[in-house]
Amino acid sequence: MGANGSARLERLPAGGLVCVVGARPNFMKVAPILRALAVADPPFPVSLVHTGQHYGPDMQEAFFHQLGLPQPDIDLEVGSASHAAQTGEIMTRFEEVVDAVAPEAVLVVGDVNSTLACSLVAAKKGVAVTHVEAGLRSGDRAMPEEINRVLTDQLATLHFTTETGARDHLLREGIDPDGIHFVGNVMIDSLLHHRDTAVAAGETLERYLPPEATEIPTEGFALVTLHRPSNVDDPEVLRELVETLEQVSERLPLVFPVHPRTRGALEAVGWPRGRRHPVMVLPPVGYLEMLGLMAGSRLVLTDSGGMQEETTALGIPCITLRENTERPVTLEQGTNTLTGTDRRRILETVDDVLATGGKGGRVPELWDGRAGERIADVLADWAPLTPW
Q1: Cα–Cα distance, 203 to 200 (Å, whole number)
Q2: How distant, in Å, are the alpha carbons of 303, 342, 345, 385 from that of 323?
């Protein structure tokens, strides 16, 4: 970890709870939990570890600052690598944290490599694991995230769920029902907390307006995001998707903030290229900018799990460019429709949204902005955690 990291470890409070973040969606999930833990009664030591799985010079400003997160007590600075190399490096560096702090519990969120890696270290060290967003299942073991979800839940003692169906998955997998707590959705906590301070879509679009653009599509645009390996790693799949997006742009303007990894894949297939219809390509944007773009859009096309939930909470039609989802409540109760990457299905669904306004939906149970508080309440009464 280096001399600077070791020195910071010595200043961390011993025991208590270590909260782990690694990738962008983790930040939105842990922020409301930390807010609630800051006023927990009784209080107990809390440390924040950032693995550095997602990183960049603007990360602190775009996510930590906008979300009101404290600066991490430790940044493991792992960076990018293959799944195996990244997971192993996180484990090696996080083990130093566990040895130095001797926490009574480790809290992990979501389904990224950091989630599983830190859970493995904690479990092997005899430290209790708590998993936020437990029990979500797509049924697709080809997804790295699905492997991370299943294994993390097997290691965890406390399982905090976002929807009622997650409990059924956990029980089928042999999880102790006494450790399952339906608390709601921390992603929606962050959305509701920051909705009034989101950056207006027009402001973001004007900031990134390309020189050749003649107008800003501030009304009636569709927001696009792509990052799943199944969509961006196969050149043929990606080429089909971007050609479909160009056809969608004949119906309404598209705004496409491009993930750095996706940008490289797009360049490899020769996109974007000169075209008649508007696709406004943006660099990655911060949380408040993305929230404003979602809220200002007419519909969203995405392969993101979190955006399926956020669009349901906002009442924005969502077209998910995947064959499955670990968030079925967004299909059953929300505004989400699965199309996969089939061009005909995508275009038909876009046309339906434009003609009818899309699926009507409702906000699922306990997506009320208080999930972080419920998690803090459970932790405050949990035997492994010792008050100050």
Answers
A1: 5
A2: 10, 10, 11, 41
CA distance 365 to 295: 21
Q: Give dist(CA 291, CA 225) in Å, integer.
A: 13
DSSP 177: G
- Dist. CA 328–CA 278, nearest whole Å: 32
Largest Cα–Cα separation, the chain: 63
Closest CA to 90 of 76, 104, 107: 76
pLDDT, averaged across the chain: 91
The 10 Å CB-count burial string (b at 16+, else e) for 11-22 is: ebeebbbbbbbb
**Buried-state track 202-221, b at ≥16 Cβ within 10 A, e below 16:** eebbeebeeeeeeebbbeeb
Is residue 194 flagged as an active site residue? no
At 23 the pLDDT is: 86
**How far apart are alpha carbons 188 and 51 in whole angstroms?**
23
Q: How confident is the model at residue 41 (pLDDT cuts 50, 70, 90)?
A: confident
Residue 164: alpha-carbon gap to chain centroid: 20
The full 3-state SS of 190-257, as one line of letters, equals HHHHHHHHCCCHHHHHHHCCCCCCCCCCCCCCEEECCCCHHHHCCHHHHHHHHHHHHHHCCCCCEEEE
Report the distance separating Cα 382 and Cα 386, nearest Å.
9
Task: Assign 3-class secondary structure to 305-346.
Answer: HHHHHHHHHHCCCEEECCCCCCCCHHHHCCCEEECCCCHHHH
The identity of residue 359, as a single letter, is K
169, 227, 259, 277: the catalytic one is: 227
What's this model's pTM, rounded to 2 decimal places?
A: 0.93
